[in-house]
Each structure stands twice: as C-alpha cells, then as structure tokens.
Amino acid sequence: MSCNLAIRKAKYREDPRKYIERVQRWQRENPERYRAKLREYAESGKKKVADRKSHLKRNYGITVEDYDRMLAEQGGGCAICAKAPRDDIALHVDHDHQTGVVRGLLCFTCNNALGDLNDDPERLYKAVTYLDRDDELTALARARALALTTSR
User: Fold this and answer.
1) Which of 106, 124, 134, 140 could form a disulfide bond with 111, CB atoms 3.0-4.6 angstroms apart?
2) Are residues 57 and 99 in the same domain?
3) What is the C-alpha separation between 15 and 10, in angstroms, rounded?
C-alpha cells in the first residue's frame, strides 16, 4: 500500500495537471455530490484542523506541534503580555518580515503594536521613554486618567 502511494505521489509531482483536471471534471459533472461532500467535510471539524495545519506550514514553515511547543515554552500566553489565547482565537505567529524567521506567539494587541511601530526597536524604545517620562503634563494626564477610572 505505501509503495503504491509513493508511486502515485511521485507521478503527481511530475505532472499534477492531469490529476487536477480529473478532479475538476468530476466536480463539474457532479455538483450536488460535490457540495454535499464539502458540507460534510466542513461539519466534521476536520476542515478547521486542516486549515490551521496548512496555514501554519504555508505561512510560517511550522507545524501545529511546533506552535504548541512554543506556546508551552512561553508559559501558555503571549510572549509580551502573557495573555492566554481565547478558545476561539489562537495567538498570532510573530515573525521577522525581512527574513521570515518566527520570533514567538503574540496576542492580537501586542502583534498589532509591533506592526504599527514597523518592528523598529528605536521607535519602541521611544514609545517606552515617552510613557515613562515624568514631567508636569504627564503627571496631570495620569492624575486625570486615574480620577476618571476610579469615579465609575
């Protein structure tokens, strides 16, 4: 069985067109059966797993197991704020846009913050410096924000 499968895979890699055309022809000739199979597949839950698996592999070159290992190494949450992923939304795979190297897993907010700062450490440092400044205007803004949040 595995030898036959290996032979079929090799033939497909040589010239996938005829296999793709055969499937497309069947889909055109059997639209009701094709839609039923799509519906059955989506309802089985396998689609979601397959989509996630192929998304991780295609976009970041990692497996679901790699993702799970990274999440465990990060303590089960975002690499920056430690916020755990929701049941319905996984953490984002953060990567260097120049090299494609995966850096870690981030929540939506932290991932967007880095993106908004163009992954520029200097801009990030300036943002931290800005937040940590201790001038009169900043002290007034902090006091006002604190008063607004505690008055509710």
Assistant:
1) 106
2) yes
3) 9
